[in-house]
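WYL domain-containing protein
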Amino acid sequence: MRKMTRLFEIVQMLAAARRPMTGADLAERLEVTPRTVYRDVAALQAMRIPIEGERGYRDETGRTTDRVLRPFALVYFSETANLVAWCELRQAIRHFRPDRVTDARLAGGHFRGDGARLRKLWTEGWTQGPT
């Protein structure tokens, strides 16, 4: 599916939705990865399409989760910054909004030498874990 078609489909799906949709929901319906949906939504927001969204630590029922992260990049979008990290809970690369983090502590471990490999996986769109 071409990007412009996908952007149009995202706008149509969100306009027709009776409740908030997750990136995973949109990705499944569009047959793309959630990361692609996040990039597409950021592109739509940059075009001043009024899309609001929240990422990370709360689900649709308001539950929070504890995560162990291996952060390796900080990305700036027009409205917010995103921490890019390997998430031990999901065993995948995920994006987290620092302004939505309610508590953070150093875990005491290191992952030296893994940052370059994780950045490469991220830029290639993979979700494989550290070896």
